[in-house]
Amino acid sequence: MSEKIVPAHGSSVPRAEIPANCKWRVHDIYADENAWKEACAELKAKLPVLNEFKGLLCDAKVMAAALMMQDEVAQLVEKIYAYARLQQDADNTDQHMQALSGEAEALAAEFSNANSFIEPEILSLDKEKLAEMLQTEPALANYKYYIENLVRLADHILPAEMEELLAKSRLATGTGATAFRSLVSADMQFPKITDGNGNEATVSEGNYLLNMTSPDRELRKNSFQGLMGTYHKYRNTLASTLTGSCRTANFYATAHKYPDTLHASLAADNIPTSLYDGLIKTVHDNLAPLHEYMQLKKDVLGYNELYPYDIYVPLSNAGDSFACDFEVACEKITEALAPLGEKYLANLKKGFSEGWIDIYENKGKRSGAYSWGVYGVHPFVLLNYQKRYNSISTIAHEMGHALHSYFSSSAQTYINADYTIFCAEVASTTNEILLLE
After folding, report:
1. What is the pLDDT of residues 241-264, one digit of tens each?
2. Least enclosed by CB within 10 Å: which of 98, 166, 227, 298?
3. pLDDT > 90: what percent of the chain?
4. Active site positions, annotated
5. More confident residue, 275 or 320
6. What predicted TM-score, i.e. pTM, was given to this entire model?
7. What does each C-alpha distance from 110 to 41, 81, 156, 231 come to in angstroms?
8. So what's the pLDDT on residue 8?
C-alpha cells in the first residue's frame, strides 16, 4: 500500500502551495475572472430595470414581475459576491481579491439602493388589498410568506426615501468589520514559540486549539501567550473596530425603530427576546456541573491553579484515535451519518469529492470554519483542518449546514430557500451528535 501524502499546510504556507484538490472550486460559480466581470456588467445593466417598477406595485401582476426581477438580480449579486469573497477569505493577503471583494460589496450596495423602494411600496397598500392580490394573482403565490413577513415587520420598515438613504450608507458603515478581518487575517503576525523541550513550534489561529489540547503544558502556555499577546498589542485598534461595529448596529436598530440591537437582531427570525433571555438563564442556572468538572480536571492534572491554557487539555488520550488524515475523517463521518439515509450520504460524498470544501490552513486564510450556500451552484465550506476530534466534528457540523442549504435550494424557489439561524443549527448539531455516538 502506498504511503499517504498529506500536503504541507499552516499559517506560513502560501496559498499557491496548497494542492488544487484540497481547495474549493470557485470556478463552479464563474469559470474565471472574465466571466465574473461579464456578470458584473450584466448586473449593472439590470439595476435600472428595477426602477421601472417604482410607483406601480399596486397592480398585482406588476408586483409579481418586480419581485421576480428582484430575485433574478439578487441571485446575480449573491454569485458575484461569493466568487470574490470566498477567494479573499482563502487568502486575505491577496490584494487583488481584496479589490474584487470591494467591487462586489459596492455592487451589492447599489442593488440595495435600487430595490429599496419595493418593500415600503408594498406596505403602503392596505392589508385587505394585499390579501386580495395574493388570492387573485397566481404569480404572487411564491411570495406569500415573504409578503406576510413584511407585514409583520411593517412598523420597522421606513418610507422609500429613508430606506434608500440607509441602503447607501451600508458600504461606509461596514468599515469596522472589514478592518477587523484584514487586521486579523492578513496583518497580524504571530511569534515563534517553543514547547516543553525547547523545540521551536508555531502558533496560529488555525492550530491554536490543537496546541491547547497538547499534554505539553509549556507549549499550551506559550501558545496562549503568543496568540493572546499578539491580540493585546493591537488592543486599541481592536477596541476601535468593535466600537465601530457596535455603533453601526445601534444606528440601524434605532433607524428602524427598535428599542435596542437585541430586538433588531431577533426580529427578522421572529424570535422573542424572552426565548433569548431564557437560553442564557438556562446556561447560568446549570454552571455547577461545569465548575465541578474544572475542579476534577485541576485535581487529576495535579495543578495548584488552573489557567485558561489548561481548559482544553483532555483527561485521557482516548481522543488520539481520532488523529487522522482528512480522507479518513470523511469516512468516519460518512459511517456516523448513515442513519440519515442513502440520499443524504450520496450528497455528503459529493460534497467531500467535488470541490465544496477548502480543507487546510494557509497564510492569510480566515480562521475558523463556515458554510456558505450559493443558490444554483452548491455550498462552499471553509475549514482549517487539524488532526483532532474537534476538527472532525467541525467537518460534520459544517456539512450539516451545507447539505441543509443544498436540499433547501434544490426543493425551494430562491425567495423561500433561506432559513433562520435557529433552524440551521438543528441540522449541524444533529451531525455532531451522530458522530459523537
Report:
1. 999 999 999 999 999 999 999 999
2. 298
3. 85
4. 398
5. 275
6. 0.88
7. 13, 13, 22, 35
8. 58
